Amino acid sequence: MSDNNNAQGQLDFDYIVVGAGSAGCLLANRLSADPANRVLLIEAGGRDNYHWIHIPVGYLYCIDNPRTDWRFRTEPDPGLNGRSLIYPRGKTLGGCSSINGMLYIRGQARDYNHWAEVTGEPAWRWDNCLPDFMRHEDHYRLDDGGDADPEHKNYHGHGGEWRIERQRLKWKVLEDFADACVEAGIPRTRDFNRGDNEGVDYFEVNQRSGWRWNTSKAFLRTAEKRPNLTLWHSTHVMALEMSAGEKPRCTGVRVERPGEGELTANASREVILSAGAIGSPQLLQLSGIGPADLLREHDIPVVADLPGVGENLQDHLQIRSVYKVRGAKTLNTMANSLTGKARIGLEYLIKRSGPMSMAPSQLCLFTRSSEEYKHANIEYHVQP
Ligand SMILES: Cc1cc2nc3c(=O)[nH]c(=O)nc-3n(C[C@H](O)[C@H](O)[C@H](O)COP(=O)(O)OP(=O)(O)OC[C@H]3O[C@@H](n4cnc5c(N)ncnc54)[C@H](O)[C@@H]3O)c2cc1C
Questions:
Q1: What pLDDT, in 10s, does the model give residues 36-84?
Q2: Is 202 in the same domain as 229?
Q3: Which is deepest, 27, 261, 326, 351, by most CB within 10 Å?
Q4: Residues 282, 286, 291, 296: is their CA dihedral positive or negative?
């Protein structure tokens, strides 16, 4: 891979991938696996060489940090008593996978089947997506061949780039919570990722040996030596270049590069927009693809009037309920003194375990809010 931060005259490619986040790193890897493809991967953020990206607890220092986060704010929301929230979005190689919670949850089969139904695209069906998930997985429960649970092989892969591990902790308070769920009729699940995620258990995480496993490590490093993959990081894509005529085509991208100003890179085959849930619709709108009235308001010439672009974002807001517990080991009891903090640091240094290796949530519970639901419709995160 040529990681140049100057264009060196080369501006013509077969494929241009916009955004080196979760999707972009994987796509750049797969496309450049064919040496005949000249692939350009463009990322607005810098390299993922900030130590807090890689130490799991570091998400606390990456969120709202200009080195790793776009630092978006929502508009004040009447539904949130007029509050404006911080809206983290990764801005570095790996994108959100460099700052996220590392929790490995695929979603429910019925979600995928619903997408297939509403889009009319059968590729979205759970059964059709499952082989793709399995192909890129490296699941710890198959490290020893997976004999302990032969069914696991029907849902998970081994030897792929995307590492999944168990969390490196087991606390009594979490076990007690899980036992209480079982008493209440909620089963202990073996796996949240088999299509029906109802149950309680520890989250599995995208980590390797106590370090965050982001998509840059997983998918870019392996592609690094390929001469047909070019990476431009710290490079902002300003707009898509669209051809004129009745059926406009995207032919490339206009970028702003440090020290070089504006350039146009051309794609003879495809431009792949993987700039995330905020970045992708924003780029489409800036390129004249979106609700015509809105575009005109901003003096953007309309290429295609598509009212859905930039609308209907759904996200998973959480309600935080806090309870006091006595006589239990929690993060608070461990971190409320200098010696406690030193012990936490030492544990991570020596064993790569303990609170510094922790994802933001440890235990997960999916259940139904009432009997009338056939599938889980509510999720709890337990964070003692
Ligand atoms: C704080 C947080 C916690 C999360 N926790 C979890 C979790 O525990 N488990 C889970 O499964 N999911 C989690 N998610 C969600 C998950 O990380 C995202 O859904 C996923 O990473 C999105 O991947 P993406 O490729 O669509 O976008 P991103 O990973 O956001 O990638 C988009 C990339 O495009 C770049 N980009 C954007 N605009 C431009 C531009 N104009 N020019 C150049 N580059 C651009 C961005 O900098 C970014 O690197 C979390 C997300 C956040 C923010």
A1: 999 999 999 999 999 999 999 999 999 999 999 999 999 999 988 999 9
A2: no
A3: 27
A4: positive
Locate 376 and state its tokens. 């889980």
Residues 6+ apart with CB under 8 A from 75: 84
Domain total for the chain? Answer: 2
Ligand 1 centroid to Cα of residue 89, in Å, is: 6
Furthest-apart CA atoms within the chain: distance in Å: 72
The answer to whether the beta carbons of residues 281 and 307 sit under 8 Å apart is no
For ligand 1, is residue 58 a contact (CB within 6 Å)?
no
Identify which of 96, 136, 231 to mutate to test ligand 1's pocket (most ligand atoms within 8 A of the CB): 96
Q: Enumerate the β-bridge partners of residue 83.
A: 77
Question: Is residue 376 lining ligand 1, measured as CB closer than 6 Å?
Answer: no
Q: Bridge-partner residues for 21, per DSSP?
A: none
In short, whether 204's Cβ falls inside 6 Å of ligand 1 is no
312: which residues sit within 8 A by CB, 6+ positions away? none
Q: Over the stretch 151-172, which tens digit does the pLDDT of each residue have? A: 999 999 999 999 999 998 888 9
Query: Does the predicted TM-score (pTM) go above 0.85?
Result: yes
Tens of pLDDT, residue by residue over 170-199, are: 889 999 999 999 999 999 998 999 999 999
Q: Ligand 1 mean position to 253 CA, how many Å?
A: 20
Indicate if ligand 1 lies below 6 Å from the C-beta of 233: no
Amino acid present at 51: H
My answer on whether 331 and 373 are in the same domain is yes
Domain that holds residue 143: 109-212+317-382
> What's the gap in Å between 214 CA and the centre of ligand 1?
11
Same domain, 87 and 39: yes
- Identity (one letter) of the amino acid at 214? N
The closest residue, in CA terms, to atom 26 on ligand 1 is 276
Do 253 and 374 reside in the same domain of the chain? Answer: no
User: Which residue is listed with tokens 């308070």?
Assistant: 173
